[in-house]
C-alpha cells in the first residue's frame, strides 16, 4: 500500500499546514464579510433588460430636462447626483456620480461608489457621463429626495 501524502496521521507537518490553511481561509472569509458584508448594500446585480428598471430609467430620462434646469440654477442646500451607465469589459456598470456639473450634453462629477468592473477608476475619481448614458438622477433638498426612479424599483425588488 502506497503512503498517502496528505494523511494527517502520517505527517504532523502536513497536519499543521492544513490546519493553518483552514484557519487562514476562515479569517480571510470573516474579514471579507465584516468589511464588505455578506452582500454590498450599494451594489446590485441587475438585468439591464428588466422591464421595471427600463420603465423607471425612461421616467428618469423624461425628467432629465427639469433636473438639468435645476442643476444649472441650484437653490441653497440642494445636492445633485446622476447615475451613469459605464461601459466595462464585463458589460454596463451603473454608478452614482455626485456633485455633477453640466456642459455640452455631459455631466462631470465625482464617482460616489466603488466600481466593480470599471478599470482604472475608484470612488472619488472625476468621471464624465454623457446625457444619453444617464440611467437615473436625484435632487436632495430640505423637502427630501426627488428622482431615484431606478433605486425605488431595486429597493422594492430586494424587499427593502
Question: What's the quick description here?
Answer:
This protein is of the alpha+beta class and 160 residues long.
Layout of helices and strands:
Layout: H1 12-36, H2 51-72, E1 79-88, E2 91-103, E3 106-111, E4 126-130, E5 134-141, E6 144-147, H3 149-158
Antiparallel strand pairs: 1-2, 1-5, 2-3, 3-4, 5-6
Description:
The chain is α+β, with helices and mostly antiparallel strands and 160 residues long. It folds into two domains: 9-39; 51-158. It has helices spanning 12-36, 51-72, 149-158, and strands spanning 79-88, 91-103, 106-111, 126-130, 134-141, 144-147. The chain has a six-stranded antiparallel β-sheet. A hairpin with a 2-residue loop joins strand 1 and strand 2. The relative contact order is 0.14. The model is unreliable at 2-8 and 17-43 (pLDDT under 50).
Amino acid at each position: 500500500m502506497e503512503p498517502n501524502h496528505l494523511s494527517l496521521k502520517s505527517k504532523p507537518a502536513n497536519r499543521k499546514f492544513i490546519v493553518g490553511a483552514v484557519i487562514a481561509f476562515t479569517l480571510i472569509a470573516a474579514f471579507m464579510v465584516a468589511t464588505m458584508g455578506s452582500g454590498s448594500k450599494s451594489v446590485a446585480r441587475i438585468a439591464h433588460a428588466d422591464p421595471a428598471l427600463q420603465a423607471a430609467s425612461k421616467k428618469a430620462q423624461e425628467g432629465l430636462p427639469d433636473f438639468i434646469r435645476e442643476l444649472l440654477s441650484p437653490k441653497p442646500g440642494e445636492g445633485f447626483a446622476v447615475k451613469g451607465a459605464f461601459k466595462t469589459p464585463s458589460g454596463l456598470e451603473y454608478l452614482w456620480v455626485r456633485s455633477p456639473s453640466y456642459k455640452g450634453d455631459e455631466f462631470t462629477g465625482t464617482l460616489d461608489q466603488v466600481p466593480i468592473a470599471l478599470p482604472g477608476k475608484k470612488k472619488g475619481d472625476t468621471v464624465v457621463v454623457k446625457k444619453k448614458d444617464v440611467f437615473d438622477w436625484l435632487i436632495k433638498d430640505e423637502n427630501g429626495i426627488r428622482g431615484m426612479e431606478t433605486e425605488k424599483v431595486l429597493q422594492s425588488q430586494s424587499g427593502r
